[in-house]
From TrEMBL:
Annotated CDD domains: crotonase-like
Gene source species: Pyrobaculum islandicum (strain DSM 4184 / JCM 9189 / GEO3)
Any GO BP annotation: fatty acid beta-oxidation
Domain of life per record: Archaea
One of the record's GO molecular function terms: isomerase activity
Protein name: Enoyl-CoA hydratase/isomerase
Gene3D superfamilies: 2-enoyl-CoA Hydratase, Chain A, domain 1
Amino acid sequence: MVRIETVGKYIKVVLTGEKRNVFSLEMINQLMNVSCDRDVLVTNEGPVFSSGLDLSIFLQNKDDVLEYLFKIHRFVKKILSCPGRVIAYVTGDVYGFGVEFLYFTDYVIASSENIKFSLQGINFGVFPPYTIAIGNRLFPIGYLKVMLNREFYTREALSFGIVSEIGSLSIEKLFSPPVYTQEHIKPRRWLLDVVEEAVPYLFKLAEIGTREETRERIRKFLRR
């Protein structure tokens, strides 16, 4: 699920899994225990950085879904509150909440130009709550329309502002930047002031996600 390593002055968090890493309840519990008093690097093993929310949770009762979604929300606020930098090094495709997680990090490096990004869980009725709630504060409306209507790849993610840089990881550059660049490497703490706007959408997601028609779509997807 998660492998945590201390490397010099930073903590390396590796999302692991044979095929697709999901932000399951177990993974979130592990991530909530990660200290971010120092800089944190989040990366992945395998072909997928994250497939996002654990869709199987929506097959449970609504109270369980709400508990899960609000644990995700506490995790988002934890990331935004970290005193150290949180940097993502993406080496695989990114789906759903995996994409949204990147909004809250300080810097995102994509290892190649052929990484796929998708918010198409919306096709199951499981919409991306943070994109819907505060996406207009992060992206022009034209970019949001693209993000919500089709898959896109690294170059577009870079132009949208989801990805900061394409290429190989340079730890020294990212964790020891010149003083004059530090403000640009840490741009998203202000989201703490607006992230609570997502709360009504978490309730709405729990409602829509536990409807029988949504559950049937999820069941069909999970049986693939």
